[in-house]
Amino acid sequence: MTGTGTPLRVGLVGYGLAGSVFHAPLIAATDGLVLDTVVTSSPERREQARAEFPDVRFAASPDELWQRADSLDLIVIASPNKTHVPIATAALKAGLPVVVDKPVAGSAAEARELAALAEERGLLLSVFQNRRWDNDFLTLSRLVAAGELGDVQRFESRFERWRPHLKGGWRESGAPEEIGGLLYDLGSHVVDQALVLFGPAVRVYAEADVRRPGAETDDDTFIAITHASGVRSHLHASATTAQLGPRFRVLGSVAGYVKHGLDPQEADLREGRRPGTGPGWGLESESLWGRIGAGESPLTGGGHPVETEPGDYPAYYAGIATALREGTAPPVTAHEAAAALDVLEAARRSAREGIVVTLEVRS
Q: How far is CA 190 from CA 102, 155, 223, 238, 339, in A?
């Protein structure tokens, strides 16, 4: 537990897409946190970071942070997937709380080993699952909690893009150590959301295809989950979808909810817009609201519109600041991330072997 008073000093490892677009702006926008140091050896990325955060310090490697661990209060790891476990391990051994971008590790076993180390040291370990604060997910969570759909029977979730040409980089690498591909990228989001909404998975079936010329790893993936609650989740993650489907279609015993379009926060962050600098953060236009109803197509005006909750990515780091100051649980735990990795590992096996994988529900 860290006392109130001076801001908590954050060391950010990595200033690529995750570090520069998501973590740095959200850390800077959070009361009680200050971006102290960015770890990058790239002169271009240092210049980029200094332009937005003139007072930030730099380090060429994470090892420089461990040498002055007493001057930092939190390490955020936004470097490539294969570095997550070794850097998080080193940070925890240096006595520093840690936030890791998803996926926290390449396996559930590694995630649980990290969780055990954090618990042994009495340190916070959390995983950045920002899509829990997407506008559509917050809206659906409210509808489910209020019983507006009745008993949910099927949850369909699509995170689809049309990117017919490869961009290159480690995310598209087929090397196992890179932990690339959509299953562990977008799949981490859709699986986490399904587990948060409907509880543990007991059976998993998946299809993972490599569609684009020259691609080395999955770029079109489908995961079917049977939850212990009886709900079935059908989850799609694709970079090869020429016509996008609804983001959510959720079918219950009383009504269904259909929502198109993506939360605007990522696009806003990419465009340089920042939370807290103007009104309307996370809001979308009424034309994009989802619809709830029964027996009619929302595409022809069936049902009625449901106002979309504002998206709230800043809530994640606000929760981290509270957890550090008050000793409460972080907004996403490492054990929750490990449960999602159980599903992702089962999906990878299912796709490879063409089988349904049964999971044991952990207490």
A: 12, 11, 9, 12, 13
pLDDT at 172: 83
Report d(CA 11, CA 22) in Å as an integer: 14
pLDDT at residue 194, rounded to an integer: 98
Q: In whole angstroms, what is the distance from residue 352 CA to residue 40 CA?
A: 36
CA angle 309, 226, 108 (to 5 degrees): 85
pLDDT band at 297 (very low <50, low <70, confident <90, very high): confident
Confidence of residue 276 (pLDDT cuts 50, 70, 90): confident
Q: Is 215 exposed, middle or buried (0-12, 13-18, 19+ CB in 10 A)?
A: middle
Q: Are 220 and 238 in contact (CB under 8 A)?
A: yes
Tokens of 262: 């993506």
Percent pLDDT > 70 in the chain is 97
Residues in the chain: 363
Give me the DSSP letters along 272-322.
T--TTSSS-TT---GGG-EEEESSS-GGGT-SEEEPPPPP-THHHHHHHHH
Query: Is the confidence at residue 316, as pLDDT, over 70?
Result: yes
Using CA atoms, how far apart are residues 350 and 110, in angstroms rounded to an integer? 20
Question: pTM of the prediction?
Answer: 0.94
One-letter amino acid at 235 equals L
Q: Which residue has the tokens 């996926």?
A: 103
Q: What is the DSSP string of 145-206?
A: HTTTTSSEEEEEEEEE-B--S---SGGG---GGG--STTTTHHHHHHHHHHHHH--EEEEEE
Shortest CA distance to 252 belongs to which of 205, 198, 199, 215? 198
Question: Residue 302 has what pLDDT?
Answer: 78
